[in-house]
Amino acid sequence: MRQGKAAVFAALLSLAQISVADAGESRTTGVGPAGIKGVDNRVVVDSSVAPWNAVGRISTSTGNYCTGVLISADRVATAAHCLWREKTLRWLPVYEISFLAGYRDGKYQERAAIESYFLPNGLVDQKKRRLKKVGDWAVLKLRRAVSSKINQFHWLILPRPFGKRPDARAKA
To answer: Residue 101: what are its φ and ψ, rounded to 5°?
Structure first.
């Protein structure tokens, strides 16, 4: 349950990294970024200060990268497909993955090596030998906790049904 919340939280926070070249201007007409309808009122945030420095980049040896969110001093939530090597149909080894805290335009505040990662069961379709579209989340454990300058995001209090936990003591 805890990792599920981390994945939802990571997905929400990945939207925070999206920026536009001219953040000061709103767009109402013309060609804008794909998926933006109407006024584009996004703003660029300073990724070097809290809480935004907890959002970073997951870099891999394959040249691919994804967004990651620091959810504790030594844990990062990200998408599981970022750790999958399509060419070999295998998960990447930890030494081929790193987290760059506060990443923006090629700069970052801190680089962290990965010690291990946790994936939910059943992500790979064994018959088709590819990833399923559901349950696309992972939690990376860093080899060392990041410095205290990088503030992790605290758990998001989600509205029901996301925040509701079944009470085993409740009687039907």
So the answer is: -70, 135
Number of domains, the chain: 1
Residue length of the chain: 172
pLDDT in tens, 84-141: 988 888 899 999 999 999 999 999 999 999 999 999 888 888 787 788 878 889 999 9
Q: pTM to 2 decimals?
A: 0.69
Q: Positive or negative, the Cα torsion across 86, 88, 90, 93?
A: negative
Ramachandran angles phi, psi of 110, nearest 5°: -155, 140
Residue ranges making up the domain that contains 130: 1-17+54-158
- Cα atoms found within 13 Å of the Cα of residue 13, Cβ hemisphere only: 30
- Decide: 49 and 57 in contact? Cβ < 8 Å: no
CATH number assigned to the domain comprising residue 92: 2.40.10.10
**Phi/psi zone of residue 116: left (φ > 0), alpha (ψ -120 to 50 degrees), beta?**
beta
In a domain, 29, yes or no: no
